[in-house]
Design brief:
Radius of gyration: 20 Å
Largest sheet: 7 strands, parallel
CATH architecture of the domain at 2-146: 3-Layer(aba) Sandwich
Structural class: alpha/beta
Shape: globular
Bound molecules: NADPH dihydro-nicotinamide-adenine-dinucleotide phosphate, magnesium ion
Order of helices and strands: EHEHEHEHEHEHEHEHHHEEEHHHHHH
Length: 391
């Protein structure tokens, strides 16, 4: 029996995780759940899974969840610090990091510091704090299992003896596949007309709003190149990106003998998450089985980085190093939110991200507090820049 802490339980990753846990009651127990604003869902999940602790980070939602669970055995905690508390509890075996954005960063680092097994979906934390997280993981021997489908595919191809953080042996390079999002065939002149509703309607994956917009700009693939750089300890040049619109091949590993291994499956996050929860053992989940004959043609196309500038910006950030990925990530969180609120156009996400990456002075990464302060600074600057252009 493994006890699990599910961070971001009310989100898309949380939902897929809990669907698998629900299927395997003798294998997993939910120790803790975290949520932000979705009060009703939090209460329903707490009643269903009866965790020891629920953590809520939004103050109003916290009050309501606390009142609703007052007669239960579940303790309700408030705030970001409480997230760090639940992931370090000795009763917790596995931490599922499913919070969206930089808000997930301190709890990811805390889990690794406590030597937990971290099932990592929250890519922003590794993009911004990869250097710190990987150094901590090496010193505490915390095991990291990537849940992001591409990184999970590579992890599966590397085999059971591979530990995240090592440069994989006998590997020439890797290829991350990208669906290309909804606009990979849209001419860039039309980007100015793209609406938030069009951008979040992903053709293949059903995900939260932020990552759906990131997929549409290809920033998601850029963040994933940075994520792969840290998780697999590989340089930028060894991480290829290829558009594969059918999202059947989730990524590929090219070995020095010319062999190429890939992981295939339906585009359903239950597949990578169940591989993580099973700690390498295959366990059943609710995903459909792949039928290649029904899938038909599989296509592969070079990504157009003139059109999707966010992908090049991520590669620039790796080259610059230090806090550059953290700056890009923080700027992107603000620009994506502004786009979703109709404050900027779709094409301006890349423009503003570019401006911030080139404007903010880059430092060496030293501490989590430095990254939290930097995150706030970049958020303020990006918000100011957006407000100025609106006047
Ligand atoms: P969702 O938007 O669906 O869910 C986000 C979760 O984070 C919710 O539980 C939400 O709580 C919580 N949350 C939001 N803001 C805060 C905050 N400030 N503090 C604490 N918790 C917060 O996102 P996804 O599940 O799609 O994505 C989660 C992470 O996984 C992202 O980093 C994404 O990049 C990554 N990922 C997701 C994939 C997917 O298929 N969805 C695939 C690969 C990676 P509430 O709802 O209660 O407000
Ligand atoms: Mg992915």
């Amino acid at each position: 029996m493994k006890t699990v802490s599910v961070l971001g339980a009310t989100g898309s990753i949380g939902e897929s995780t809990l669907a698998i846990i629900r299927k395997h009651p003798s294998r997993f127990r939910v120790h803790s759940l975290s949520a932000h604003k979705n009060t009703e869902k939090t209460i329903a999940l707490a009643k269903e899974f009866e965790p020891t602790v629920v953590t809520v980070t939004d103050p109003d939602s916290y009050q309501q969840v606390k009142a609703a669970l007052s007669s239960s055995n579940t303790e309700v905690l408030f705030g970001a610090e409480a997230l760090e508390h639940i992931v370090t509890e000795s009763a917790v075996d596995l931490v599922v990091a499913g919070i969206v954005g930089n808000a997930g960063m301190p709890s990811v680092l805390a889990a690794v510091k406590a030597g937990k097994t971290l099932l990592l979906a929250n890519k922003e934390s590794i993009v911004a704090a990869g250097e710190l997280v990987m150094a901590e993981a090496a010193s505490t021997a915390a095991k990291i299992i990537p849940l992001d489908s591409e990184h999970n595919a590579i992890y599966q191809c590397l085999g059971g003896n591979y530990e995240v953080g090592e440069r994989p042996a006998h590997v020439r390079n890797i290829t991350l596949t990208a669906s290309g999002g909804p606009f990979w065939q849209t001419p860039s002149e039309s980007f100015i007309h793209i609406t938030p509703a069009e951008a979040v309607a992903h053709p293949k994956w059903n995900m939260g709003a932020k990552i759906s917009v990131d997929s549409a700009t290809l920033m998601n693939k850029g963040l994933e190149v940075i994520e792969a750089h840290w998780l697999f300890n590989m340089p930028n040049e060894d991480i290829n990106v290829m558009v594969h619109p059918q999202s059947i091949i989730h990524s590929l590993v090219h070995f020095i003998d010319g062999s190429v291994l890939a992981q295939l499956g339906m585009p359903d996050m239950q597949i990578p998450i169940s591989y993580g929860l099973g700690l390498g053992e295959r366990i059943s989940n609710g995903a459909d089985f792949l039928d290649l004959l029904a899938a038909g043609e599989l296509n592969f196309v070079e990504p157009d980085t003139n059109k999707f500038r966010c992908l090049s910006l991520a590669r620039d950030a790796i080259k610059i190093g230090g806090t550059a990925p953290a700056v890009l990530n923080a700027a992107n969180e603000v620009t994506v939110a502004a786009f979703l609120q109709h404050k900027i156009r779709f094409d301006q996400i890349a423009t503003f991200n570019d401006k911030m990456l080139n404007q903010v002075s880059i430092q060496t990464v030293e501490s989590m507090q430095q990254l939290i302060d930097l995150d706030q600074e970049v958020r303020n600057l990006t918000t100011e820049m957006i407000e100025k252009q609106q006047q």
